[in-house]
Amino acid sequence: MNPIVGYILIALAALNLVGLLLVFRRLGNAPAKPAPAPVTEPVQTPAPLAEPAIDPTALNTMLCRLENRLGDIEEQVRRAPTVTIASEPGSTSDRSLALAQRLARQGASPKDIAETCGISLTEAELLHRLHSGR
């Protein structure tokens, strides 16, 4: 797995975790009401607060699963071998590209460029079109 993708997944999981924590706190802490002014009339009892849309135990379960998943992703990123772009299949090093550009400027054919530099014929044709004197 590409390390960048792993870091993106970790960031998304962390954002989900923070969002769920905020929702959980909002549901758990009802906004405080100011103290009522003294009234001589009989006080009416307020209607009971509505039940939260999501059960707090369900939220707690979701948070635990997210934490476990985040740990799994972090472990995958730690275990993934560090892969540089130059070592991926089909990629070329800066040296071979510089040589290919120089050969194209000198008028070499795309086939010769591809064979000499170890790049694909398509890449060699592109470099030839970009750097040849024609």
Unreliable stretches: none
Helix content: 55-70%
Helix and strand sequence: HHHHH
Can you tell me the overall shape? Answer: rod-shaped
- Relative strand content: under 5%
| Largest sheet features | none
Structure description:
- It is a single chain.
- This protein has 134 residues and is mainly alpha-helical.
- The protein contains 5 helices and no strands.
- The longest helix is centred in the first third of the chain and has 26 residues, at 3-28.
What is the strand and helix layout of this fold?
Layout: H1 3-28, H2 56-79, H3 94-105, H4 110-117, H5 121-131
Helix pairs in contact: 1-2, 3-4, 3-5, 4-5
Brief digest:
The protein is mainly α.
Quickly list its features.
about 130 residues, 5 helices
